[in-house]
């Protein structure tokens, strides 16, 4: 029987959850080799089967939650349709004619164009046919509703059927040029599209910053149109988002959009790149620099890949252990967990890890750092929170976000600035050079002219270090809050951090006897190998898996109390129903008593007539 059949109340339950089941968009993010494509394949499967006992290392209650999820999702599974970002890039590539495409390849990989044309010849005929379709059909305007619907249906078929197949052919052909040619071509094309709206132009046009996600949005709308027409659900997975502003674009447009980061330990990722993708060490270094840039300036912030930022703003974090090449049980179980909660919020409670990380995620908003906000929470071994902290200046000093270079230049709000900042000649010289003209810039439009002291001092010293930062790190702030208020035992405790611990904070955690560090950013530099993986009492490092931020509330806040849902769905008598039934019973009893009393009265009257006849 369908969940929408039955009595009117049970149909109302179906209507309440209908939107959660009709339209969902998931954007996957993560570094190459982490498992985004594998996750997309799982989500697009026709069915999903989960093991009865989940996987090792979970508590009894977590196992019970898993079994609830298993029963729910195996009954409700809805396969996703995969929208590959590379197919959208292929659509932009097809705006070029074939010679222009070969020229673009030649420029990126620095190979003779005649050689490139020879390599690409085997796909030329199909390329030319698709080039015509892109130019004449997708590029044409629509004037009527029928034309709009016809184009949406064409686009659905084009992006979800034709282009994925042809993109695979391009990839295999480019790999014949070099093992990393495909990656370089598509990364360069993606950057150019974000900059100019065109594959072969890197000239920055600020009006084109969201050109790429707008195209993806049109594709999603075409899929939604086809699904509505066929009275079907529309579940889309985007594989994969690597620019944070594209993720923000979709977050602002769809309540049903979730950015899901797929993370794995770096050594597992590197092993996968070497064995499966056959990347050399130099190619891996180039790939990592592209996906995880150390510093982005100017318009490159808007057009470049920045997976660290994408992970930072993700709604759900999935840990892909990658211990066995053909075993994806943990990955599948986690994906099933969150797809179930998207369809039915509050089906199970959050894990202890999620509850504690959500606290760390919430307190990071109190940070006054203008570079990056980080939150931390320290708990005992039973997840009871003992302290929280965020990266900020020591209590009593003014955070950078609240300071203004103009105030410092004009000698205003002197309490907020150090004697060094107010009186050192070299510092004042750099301050004037950087901000004297900028403080009156119309581009500020009322914004506060905050500045980073560390960056300015490093510029003066000609160095690059963390010594001059004004802020405490979130983790050390949490540790110090405990000492500040009398102290308590932290041995065997757990540290939660929304980033990953640096060497300094790692040493402090080690010294305090912290048994486990749960962190989000999966690439903590040398802190792991140098500071933590040494000695006899090393804390266990655990990549975070779970929902944070708005997703935590969306997924775990029930739409209605579960008891009410079951009572309504199955017509189980609730308290209100019981009261109504008791009232009916009393009414019936009173009616029966009145009838019995009336009968007795009639009998008495009859007897009286016999005793006193007229």
UniProtKB/TrEMBL annotation:
Keyword Nucleotidyltransferase applies: no
Keywords assigned: Coiled coil, Hydrolase
GO molecular function: dCMP deaminase activity
One Pfam family cited in the UniProt record for this chain: dCMP_cyt_deam_1
Gene Ontology CC terms: cytoplasm
Keyword Coiled coil in record: yes
Record-annotated CMP/dCMP-type deaminase domain positions: 351-540
InterPro entries found in the cross-reference section: CMP_dCMP_dom, Cytidine_deaminase-like, dCMP_deaminase-rel, P-loop_NTPase
Entry-linked PROSITE patterns: CYT_DCMP_DEAMINASES_2
Coiled-coil stretches: 583-610
Domain of life of the native organism: Bacteria
Name the record gives this protein: CMP/dCMP-type deaminase domain-containing protein
Taxonomic source organism: Pseudomonas lundensis
């Amino acid at each position: 029987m369908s969940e929408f059949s039955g009595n009117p109340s049970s149909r109302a339950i179906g209507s309440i959850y209908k939107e959660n089941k009709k339209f969902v968009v998931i954007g996957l993010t993560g570094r190459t080799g982490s498992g985004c494509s594998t996750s997309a394949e799982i989500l697009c499967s026709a069915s999903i089967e989960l093991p009865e006992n989940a996987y090792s290392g979970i508590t009894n209650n977590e196992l019970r939650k898993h079994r609830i999820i298993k029963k729910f999702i195996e009954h409700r599974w809805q396969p996703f349709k995969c929208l590959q970002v590379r197919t959208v890039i292929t659509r932009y590539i097809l705006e070029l004619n074939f010679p222009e495409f070969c020229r673009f390849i030649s420029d990126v990989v620095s190979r003779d164009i005649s050689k490139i044309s020879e390599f690409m010849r085997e796909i030329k005929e199909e390329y030319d046919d698709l080039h015509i379709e892109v130019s004449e059909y997708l590029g044409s305007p629509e004037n009527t509703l029928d034309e709009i619907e016809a184009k949406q249906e064409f686009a659905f078929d084009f992006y979800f059927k034709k282009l994925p197949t042809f993109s695979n052919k391009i990839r295999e052909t480019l790999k014949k040029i070099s093992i990393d040619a495909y990656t370089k071509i598509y990364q360069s094309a993606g950057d150019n599209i974000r900059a100019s709206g065109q594959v072969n132009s890197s000239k920055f046009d600020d009006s084109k910053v969201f050109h790429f996600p707008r195209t993806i949005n049109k594709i999603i709308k075409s899929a939604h149109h086809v699904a509505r027409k066929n009275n079907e659900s529309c579940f889309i997975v985007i594989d994969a988002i690597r620019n944070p502003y594209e993720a923000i674009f979709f977050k602002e447009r769809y309540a049903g959009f979730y950015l899901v980061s797929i993370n794995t330990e770096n050594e597992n990722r590197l092993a996968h790149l070497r064995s499966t993708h056959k990347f050399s060490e130099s190619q891996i270094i180039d790939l990592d620099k592209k996906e995880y840039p150390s510093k982005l300036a100017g318009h490159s912030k808007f057009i470049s890949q920045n997976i660290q930022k994408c992970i930072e703003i993700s709604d759900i974090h999935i840990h892909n252990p990658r211990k066995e090449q053909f075993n994806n049980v943990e990955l599948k179980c986690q994906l099933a967990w969150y797809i179930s909660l998207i369809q039915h919020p509050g089906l199970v409670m959050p894990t202890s890890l999620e509850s504690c990380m959500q606290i760390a995620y919430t307190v990071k908003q109190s940070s006054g750092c203008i570079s990056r906000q980080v939150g931390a929470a320290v708990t005992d071994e039973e997840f009871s929170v003992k302290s929280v902290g965020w990266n900020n200046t020591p209590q009593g000093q003014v955070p950078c976000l609240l300071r203004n270079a103009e105030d410092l230049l004009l000698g205003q709000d002197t309490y907020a600035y150090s004697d060094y900042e107010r009186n050192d000649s070299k510092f004042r010289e750099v301050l004037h050079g950087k901000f004297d003209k900028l403080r009156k810039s119309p581009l500020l439009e009322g914004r506060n002219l905050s500045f980073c002291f560390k960056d300015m001092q490093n510029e003066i010293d000609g160095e690059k270090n963390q010594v001059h930062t004004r802020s405490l790190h979130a983790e050390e702030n949490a540790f110090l809050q405990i000492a500040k208020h009398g102290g308590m035992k932290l041995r065997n405790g757990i540290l939660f951090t929304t980033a990953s611990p640096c060497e300094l904070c790692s040493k402090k955690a080690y010294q305090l006897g912290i048994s486990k560090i749960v962190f989000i950013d999966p690439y903590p530099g040398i802190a792991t190998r140098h500071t933590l993986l040494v000695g006899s009492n090393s804390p266990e490092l655990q990549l975070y898996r779970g929902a944070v931020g708005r997703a935590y509330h969306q997924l775990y806040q029930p739409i209605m109390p579960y008891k009410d849902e079951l009572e309504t769905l199955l017509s189980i008598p609730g308290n209100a129903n019981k009261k109504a039934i008791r009232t009916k019973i009393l009414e019936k009893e009173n009616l029966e008593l009145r009838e019995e009393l009336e009968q007795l009265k009639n009998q008495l009257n009859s007897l009286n007539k016999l005793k006193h006849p007229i």
